[in-house]
Fold this protein.
Amino acid sequence: MTELQNMQPQTIQPLLSLSHASKSFGPVQALSDVSIDLFPGEAHALLGENGAGKSTFVKILAGVHRREGGSLTVAGKSADFHSPGEATAAGIAIIYQEPTLFPDLSVAENVLMGRQPRAGLGRIDTRAMNARVTELLRELGVALDPSRPVRGLSIADQQLVEIAKALSLNANVLIMDEPTAALTLSETDRLFRVVRALRERGAAVLFITHRLEEVFAECQRVTVMRDGTWVSTGPISDYDTDLVVKQMVGRELGDLYPRGEMTLGEVALSVRNLSQPKMFSDISFEVRRGEIVALAGLVGAGRSEVARAIFGIDPRSGGEVRIGDAVIQPNSTRAAMSAGLGLVPEDRRQQGLVMDLSIERNANLAILNRLTGGLLMNRKAEAENAQNWTSKLQLKAHRLSDPVSSLSGGNQQKVVLAKWLSTNPSVLIVDEPTRGVDVGAKAEVHKTLAELAASGLAVLMISSDLPEVLGMADRILVMREGQLVGELSRAEANEEAVMYLATGQRAWAKQAGAA
Amino acid sequence: MTERSVPASAPASPGWLSRLLMAREVSLVGLLLLVTLGTAVINPLFLSFGSVRDLLLNVSIIALLVVGQTLVLLMKHVDLSVSSTVGLSAFLTGSLFVANPGMPVPLALLFGLGLGAVLGSVNGLLVAYGKVPALVATLGTLYVFRGITYAVVSGGQINASNLPPSFLGFGTGSVLGVPNLVLLAVAVLIGFAFYLRSYRGGREYYAVGSNSEAAVLAGINVTRRTMTGFVLSGAIAGLAGVLYLARFGTVDATAGAGLELQVIAAAVVGGVSINGGVGTLLGAGLGALLLGVMGSALVTLRAPGFYQQAIQGALLLAAISIDMLVSRRAAKRLQEERKS
């Protein structure tokens, strides 16, 4: 790694060199005058807020968009891609955040689509195809049956299928767009092991991620972009978190975790011996007004399931949930909502929003019956409610009648918050509130949560983002395999302590603590 | 990379026996045998040479259309216009024969193919290039093509007596006891089944229907593949129109009307998913055969006509429900495997 950091770019030929590329869509200048060099054996991080032009940048390298101006050199030869096929042929492989695979086809066909080995008369040689893919997967250190369909594979396994595809193409430039956003800790670890092995063979890896810890742990060089323009490039040793964030946001961000003094009120949410067979058992805790309590643990520990059971989406086999003094009957989201409970779900695109509806409609979805005047919707009340909450949350939108899909991730999350805050809840459960949200929007979501707590709301926050848990929570409850295994106060909490409880293993905790 | 971790649970591939039992084709064959034997026990005439021959002739036209429809369904599209293509092709081929009684039969088949391909390319242009949803585009052309037929026919009809004996002979002829039409349909079906299973181009139909965005990224020309699918579906429907004329001899402007739904039903019963990416031509062909046998069995058993449609519908619903149940159970199982 040190060699790489000290290397003289002039003496080594870059695998890929894009200089002074621009791209506009109609009147919108998505990218202007951006340059990057990728050298063999390096992991290069491409950082920027959502909307900074990273995706456009990747799509130019992928051959999906055509660049305007500038030049592209791949392995010393000048290149100009008209289609994804040409980029692939030049040895560039892209691994998108959501793997782009064929769920109905076999793993082997997914890897070799369009390049299936053929026997006589041009027939596909299935046996040779499966053997080839088995070999590729073995190189990656994974055991997957090449003849099984891709449907049902975890995101992590699907990414490995994508990487196998890249290997099969002899790609020497690998571009990964937020590969770890949906992975568990051990899956992330496995992915990075594979990436290191690829680098050792001389491949260049371009990483796009919002997780800065990963950048500092895995990458040798960094390029920062903002508003479609290049800001800086340099070895990782020249950067620290503050500098990166400052360059990405273009202003002083203030505190990423603005958790001030809190005043605790009475108990707002009380959960007693909540159980659900095979999922979790005997969960008891309380959240007070003004308090942010984090529910930490590994993905699959049962955190979201607990939230769903509290909210009445999933059935529960035993236990009691109280909001204030009222006991909430099970299996009824209606009862939970009218008692003052709100749930900001994990997957805002699927569960939190109706993407094609307007911002206003989305913000009002949870209180439709309150906004009716007789039989028809009261348009004025609708507009007022939406206006009220979106301005309180400082939503950045052109018009409230724009579809919610036109907003950035952080602003979409604010619409979900607006929807639940409209119901005037006393308890808000937020599940992964900042997943896939860039650092600027993250700070704003955190600020909003802190303000809501300060105004007397009880917040239960489920998060896999350890710095977020440590930065925002007044108390941390840790779950492991469906059990509540521990509680840490703000003073006792650190990464190692949380990871130890979450995994039950010292080694893991050390590793995470060191990272 | 010294400490590679191989996930402990390398998923074992299911054995050939369970794969066989899970295959849609096997349950279709079982159901076919059950219906055929059951009916034959009650009325042995059901298996007489004549009635089997009639049944196969009826099924052959549907089975042919199912081939084209499957190509389109696999890509997550649908072609409703095939029945109108059959009608127009049947009538225009008949008119050609009336005008040139000496026209050789292969030329008539080529004419049907060509006409169908032209009509299919209209669908293809609308869906692949115009990005019109296939349901809407082909519903439109269903009416347009039928309208053209009415305009051309203008109240007339083609009668068997106007057709040259060589053509009628092709329609009734057989090789080793197997009717020509059946042979032709089976040949097309087997040819395309082989193509879909074992050729790169054939696999592209599955890829496009399974995830069209991924297909673009995999370097597949989705637009061209979609276009090709609709042209083939049209060409096959045009060919089926010629066979329709050869089978029935008498053709008016309503020829083939309503076939499109039977064809889609046959494909779906045969395991072709309307969500694209799933299904085989063997299954679709068996689906067509099963629906045909059911219909014929009900006639043999003297069931009132309306029961036939009701039972076809029930079969369709059963097929879809079973598919959903199976996929839900599979999804659940996979989820539990991940948890454990």
Remarks:
- DSSP finds 14 helices and two strands in chain B.
- The longest helix of chain B spans residues 305-339.
- Residues 1-13 of chain B have pLDDT under 50 and may be disordered.
